[in-house]
Amino acid sequence: MAQQPISLPAKLINGGVAGLVGVTCVFPIDLAKTRLQNQRGSQRVYKNMMDCLIKTVRSEGYFGMYRGAAVNLTLVTPEKAIKLAANDFFRQRLSTGELKLSVFQEMLAGCGAGMCQVIVTTPMEMLKIQLQDAGRLVAQQRKFPVLHTVKLGTASPVLNCSYSVGPVSSTRKVSAIQITQELLRTKGIQGLYKGLGATLLRDIPFSVVYFPLFAHINKLGKTSEDDEVPFYWSFISGCVAGCTAAVAVSPCDVVKTRLQSLNKSANEDTYNGVADCIRKIMRKEGPAAFLKGAGCRALVIAPLFGIVQVVYFIGVGEFLLGQTPFNLYSV
Question: How far apart, in whole angstroms, are the C-alpha atoms of residue 63 and residue 28?
Answer without folding.
Answer: 9
